[in-house]
């Protein structure tokens, strides 16, 4: 029977049982006594398993002695206790089948030595064979399951919101256009503008920047919902925190205010940190050893402490009086830069912080105006080392106030008619947030560049692989 290596390490098979593992060679070492040691990796867990291959195998000279890093094999043999330190099991091989050799070991980009993370990015199709990308992938998988489990246990319905949309959720104009029009021969209206009526959907359409507006419609019917899918931003940001294509988790809760959304964000983060600490301890140990020595302690601290809540106005005072020289000056009304967010989270509090009640002029049109008339019921969760990982708000539930904001921000009323309907027919206070999934993975693993925590990163000027 074929088995994943993780099942062997999880004691699924007793000593003495015959197993077959499929995987890729990490290393081969030959002893003078005429046996070879193969380290085989299949991605099911952090560690490779060792197979001990005797030289009397029929294909020992022809195949086994030609194995190099990256070759694919099936190895069958008896499971025995490993005399070597660190390993509990090894396979006493009775058969080694080679599926594919590495044609030219000198050109194989993933040799057994340690490569820089930048180098790996240039070989995105082969980098999943490395320890670090394997560990990132398993942690990412664990986090995504934990998110679904968290909401499922709480009775939320997962809604699949559309990728193609006609409305700009954030109103920031950072959308990729979706069109089947012939770019070299665009149809024009009489006024000389592009005639999108002739386009596939009969109107201008884009890749969504957020599923929130659609999620709101379902929250205003099913009460508690979330969407979790890819989102797209054509912002020309060349930073370690921005992708042009990233995944977002967006819960939306009805009969709820900003404080409810903030509590939900805190509970969700703690739940998924716990999951990763218990379910991916092997990978987290690797991150703590190789990438960021705080990787585990940071999460442990988070699950046991209460997140600090602070108003934007107070944060501005702190930043102005802290004596630190920032690249960008701060005064009430400015959008916080990552250096400010990080100062608050890393230096001032030393833990994640939930910043609330931002000036309305730097936030999206749908956020609920506070009684002061100047701020909106918005929140950002700022994490040490990274800055904003969550952005959310209470939504404006009054049609009158919403329309005023749409007009003030010069958005097209017609695009939002369906969204405005929610305020006409049984409107209710509701709130939600968006968690940037890659920022979460980056935070959890300590892997600094967001391009390294998604399989095939998309950023300005780069959409290879
Ligand atoms: O703050 P943002 O723009 O909020 C929204 O889109 C709301 N509609 C969410 C909601 O309330 N349902 O984005 C939310 C999060 C950010 O906090 C950040 O973590 C992440 O999405 N994010 C990005 N992640 C990677 N690359 C980018 N270019 C990102 N832009 C935002
Ligand atoms: Mg934001």
UniProtKB/TrEMBL annotation:
Localization annotation: Cytoplasm
Keyword Cytoplasm annotated: yes
Xref: SUPFAM superfamilies: Class II aaRS and biotin synthetases, Nucleic acid-binding proteins
One MF term in the entry's GO annotations: ligase activity
Domain named Aminoacyl-transfer RNA synthetases class-II family profile: residues: 138-457
Keyword list, A-Z: Aminoacyl-tRNA synthetase, ATP-binding, Cytoplasm, Ligase, Nucleotide-binding, Protein biosynthesis
Coiled-coil features, chain-numbered ranges: none
Keyword Protein biosynthesis appears in the UniProt entry: yes
EC number: 6.1.1.22
Substrates-to-products reaction catalysed: tRNA(Asn) + L-asparagine + ATP = L-asparaginyl-tRNA(Asn) + AMP + diphosphate + H(+)
Quaternary structure and partners: Homodimer.
Recorded family membership: Belongs to the class-II aminoacyl-tRNA synthetase family.
Record protein name field: Asparagine--tRNA ligase
Protein source organism: Psychromonas marina
Gene name of the encoded protein: asnS
């Amino acid at each position: 029977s074929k088995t994943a290596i993780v099942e062997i390490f999880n004691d699924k098979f007793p000593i003495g049982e015959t197993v077959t593992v499929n995987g890729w060679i990490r290393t081969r070492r030959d002893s003078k006594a005429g046996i070879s040691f193969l380290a085989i990796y299949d991605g099911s867990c952090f560690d490779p398993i060792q197979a001990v291959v005797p030289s009397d195998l029929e294909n020992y000279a022809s195949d086994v002695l030609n194995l190099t890093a990256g070759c694919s094999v099936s190895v069958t043999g008896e499971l025995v206790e490993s005399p070597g330190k660190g390993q509990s099991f090894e396979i006493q091989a009775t058969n080694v089948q080679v599926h594919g050799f590495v044609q030219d070991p000198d050109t194989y980009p993933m040799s057994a030595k340690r490569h820089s993370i930048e180098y790996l990015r240039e070989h995105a199709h082969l980098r999943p064979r490395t320890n670090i990308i394997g560990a990132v992938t398993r942690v990412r998988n664990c986090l995504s399951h934990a998110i679904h489990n968290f909401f499922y246990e709480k009775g939320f319905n997962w809604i699949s919101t559309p990728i193609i949309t006609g409305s700009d959720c954030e109103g920031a104009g950072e959308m990729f256009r979706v069109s089947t029009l012939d770019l070299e021969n665009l149809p024009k209206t009489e006024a000389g503008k592009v005639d999108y009526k002739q386009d596939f959907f009969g109107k201008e359409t884009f890749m969504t920047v957020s599923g929130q507006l659609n999620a709101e419609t379902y929250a205003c019917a099913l009460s508690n919902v979330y969407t979790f899918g890819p989102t797209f931003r054509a912002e020309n940001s060349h930073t370690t925190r921005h992708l042009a294509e990233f995944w977002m988790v967006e819960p939306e809760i009805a009969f709820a205010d900003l404080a409810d959304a903030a509590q939900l964000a805190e509970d969700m983060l703690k739940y998924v940190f716990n999951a990763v600490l218990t379910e991916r301890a092997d990978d987290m140990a690797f991150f703590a050893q190789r990438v960021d020595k705080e990787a585990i302690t940071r999460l442990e601290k988070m699950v046991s402490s209460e997140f600090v809540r602070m108003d934007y106005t107070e944060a501005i005072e702190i930043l102005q009086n802290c004596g630190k020289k920032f690249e960008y000056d701060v005064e009430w009304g400015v959008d916080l830069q990552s250096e400010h967010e990080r100062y608050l989270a890393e230096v001032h509090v030393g833990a994640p912080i939930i910043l609330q009640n931002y000036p309305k002029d730097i936030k999206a049109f749908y956020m609920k105006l506070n009684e002061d008339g100047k701020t909106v019921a918005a929140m950002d969760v700022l994490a040490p080392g990274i800055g904003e990982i969550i952005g959310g708000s209470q939504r404006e539930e009054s049609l009158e106030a919403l329309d005023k904001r749409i007009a003030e921000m010069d958005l097209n009323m017609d695009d939002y008619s369906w969204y405005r309907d929610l305020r006409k027919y049984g409107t209710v206070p509701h709130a939600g947030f968006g968690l940037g999934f890659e920022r979460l993975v980056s935070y959890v693993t300590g892997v600094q560049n967001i391009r390294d925590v998604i399989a095939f990163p998309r950023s300005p000027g780069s959409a290879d692989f």
